[in-house]
Amino acid sequence: MTASLDFIAWPVTTKRLTLRRLTEGDLESTWSYRKLPEVTEWITAGPKDFETYRKQFLESGKINRDIAVELSDGQGGSRLIGTVMVYIKDAWGQREVAEQAKAVEAELGWSFDPEFAGRGYATEAVKAAMKLCFEDLGLRRIVAGCFAANEPSARLMERVGMRRESFEKAISLHRSGQWVDSYSYAMLKEEWAG
Q1: 91, 103, 140 from 98: Cα distances, Å
Q2: Among candidate residues 91, 31, 21, the one with its CA nearest the CA of residue 56
Q3: Degrees to nearest 5, angle at CA 119 with 117 and 124
Q4: pLDDT at residue 101 in the model
Q5: What domains are there in the chain, each with its CATH number?
Q6: Which of these, 137, 140, 80, lies nearest to 110 by C-alpha position?
Q7: Structure pTM?
């Protein structure tokens, strides 16, 4: 059986957050913070206008792989404060065992509204996504990466227990036109402490 976010009993709750599948209805909520320069600086796509963002949002597969992170507003409602991507993918395997390497790892990524920074919400959400990957989906490995200058993301990966596996010099082309350094992090299921 192939691992899929479709197999999770949504929503998933943590101490302070609710995680659920991203929907088309989240378009404007995610745009409200992803358009901010301090967020756009680090994310994969930084469209300049809402219509371009809408098109990319609907065509990119975000709805199939992103998890909405909501915080209760204390009034019985909630507010979307970020997303965590869980992109399930194949590991590399030699031809004779390639079938056994299908859908056994996930790449994680995230973006959060800076208004909610510094309160541990991203850490809580990413740990919950890791739990889904290892405990619910039975994946063997998770990976994540960031530009080396994106210190908050690097610190987050270290806070959740991921190990830095590489530092790559001038490997990533940033939309500024500069080639920049990147880090990659990972964790194996047997390293997961829960």
Answers
A1: 8, 11, 15
A2: 31
A3: 100
A4: 95
A5: 5-143 (3.40.630.30)
A6: 80
A7: 0.94
